[in-house]
Amino acid sequence: MKLVxxxxxxxxxxxxxxxxxxxxxxIGGPLTGLPQPAADIPPNGIECQERxxxxxxxxxxxxxxxxxxxxxxxxxxxxxxxxxxxxxKNLTGLGGPFWDNEFYNxxxxxxxxxxxxxxxxxxxxxxxxxxxxxxxxxxxxxxxGSKNGNRGEWAESGDLExxxxxxxxEPETIYLIVEREGLIQEVDLSSYGSTTIRNSWDISHDxxxxxxxxxxxxxxxxxxxxxxxVDAGGMHYQSKGGMxxxxxxxxxxxxxxYAFDLDRKEGTFSFVGRYQTDGTEVSGLExxxxxxxxxxxxxxxxxxxxxxxxxxxxxxxERKLDTITYYDGPGYIIWDNQEGIAITSNDxxxxxxxxxxxxxxxxxxxxxxxxxxxxxxx
Length: 378
Description:
The chain is mainly β. It has one domain (77-375): Tachylectin-2, Chain A. Helices cover 5% and strands 42% of the residues. It has helices at 2-13, 221-226, and strands spanning 61-66, 69-74, 89-90, 107-113, 118-123, 129-136, 142-144, 146-147, 150-151, 153-156, 159-164, 173-179, 183-188, 196-202, 213-220, 245-251, 256-263, 268-276, 284-288, 293-298, 304-315, 318-328, 338-343, 353-360, 368-375. The chain has an 8-stranded mixed β-sheet.
């Protein structure tokens, strides 16, 4: 107890939370490199008659009424909108006692299933990567799941950096991004403790290399159509491979997001396009089906959250996803390699708040945090 108390006291002395409302290197001015949304891009989906109808109350964003619908874009980096990391709920203890806690090292990815109310997390230890499923009870508390007497934990090989769901009617079919090998894998985890690989797609050639593939999320076709998603050539695009949507992969080097159209029956895929973001590194992705927003976590020494539309603008010879809002992170404790994110549904809002989950590689005592005051989106 004395050791733990001393650690906590020492940590509280460290500074944390949002330091400023500007991007590192800026001096309070508008963000550079953020193109203003074109007049014909899909709006936020909020109807309006005048600009005042679109005001989100944030000085860091520009809100305008365009053809009867609101469009929001960033002016500066906003303060972190939820509680600081010191006040967030710590879920790391679910991994076991501190002398034998599997969550302590290399926790790298997370995804939330709004229908089963399960949080899936993974770690990326090269020769001992693992996946866990956490069940939420009626009180909002979590525990590692179990089925038929087996613990909801799977041992994997390879450099597992992220995971996601596609069809929510298949809640135990999980898609993984495996760095180094540069693979997207479809695995069946319906038998707890035992993994069946259904498909493996080698995307390394289209990403230059497998090194740097850090994040993954799935976007259903209905959102691609509604928000005017286009391929690398600027043509409207929806999936053709039979999955009913596209798989997005975040890249650590350069901060781009890559789109792939996977075919589960044939085990083939089509490369759709590469899209720049406002960061130079991407370590976490989560698509929120309740709002249609794509959340991008810029990790490393940045640790900031970008919220984007699925529409994109031409920037030079490339396309760039249209940014809605850009947030500073929640601060650090000791280790700052924050990598994976997940977010609960807008339908779970209580007093305008919902949960945001953050995993930290080498986070030790603070590897899995739940921020319960993350704002809902209209």
